[in-house]
Design goal:
The chain has helices at 3-32, 43-46, 56-62, 64-76, 82-97, 114-136. The protein has 153 residues and is mainly alpha-helical. Among the domains are: 24-97, no CATH class; 110-141. Helix 4 (64-76) crosses helix 5. It is elongated, with a radius of gyration of 37 Å. The chain starts with a helix and ends in a 17-residue tail after the last helix.
């Protein structure tokens, strides 16, 4: 037998032994793991007593308790997928404690000078006062725009 052939045989034997070892470990782990409990939600807990209305908000409010019971049953059900259980648990936490606050940072650049804003507010108050006076006197409101110095040219 040549060296390469011997090495291939050794490698094949090593792989076979490794596979047997993995199978033994999997059987041990499966035997040690408890079987998931059979879970069946109680249908009486999920029934909804809906009011006689077409208002979706009222219908949703009436189903709130049953919806929360359903979320609890999904979160505690070992036969559900991990994603479903985590999603149900997160929904319960969000509803019980509120969602986590998120901060938003914004940079606002404005070409308006604060004095322009103050002047605009003053003009608006003046126009509103005039409009009220004219409405009281039942006269039509007449607004004449100011001319800019730049537009005269």
């Amino acid at each position: 037998m040549e060296l390469n052939e011997w090495q291939e045989n050794q490698e094949g034997e090593r792989r076979r032994l490794d596979e047997k070892r993995r199978e033994r470990e999997q059987r041990k782990a499966k035997a040690a793991a408890p079987e998931p409990e059979e879970f069946t939600p109680d249908p009486a807990e999920i029934e909804i007593d809906l009011p006689d209305t077409d208002d979706p908000r009222e219908l949703a409010k009436a189903a709130t308790v049953s919806a929360i019971k359903t979320l609890v049953s999904v979160a505690l059900d070992p036969t559900q997928s991990a994603n479903a259980r985590v999603s149900a648990a997160n929904s319960l936490i969000d509803r019980g404690h509120g969602k986590v606050e998120q901060s938003i940072t914004a940079v606002v650049e404005s070409k308006l000078d604060p004095s322009d804003i103050t002047d605009l507010a003053r003009r608006m108050r003046f126009l509103m006062a005039m409009a009220q006076n004219q409405a009281i006197e039942s006269q039509p409101i007449e607004v004449v725009p100011e001319k800019d110095d730049d537009t005269d040219q």
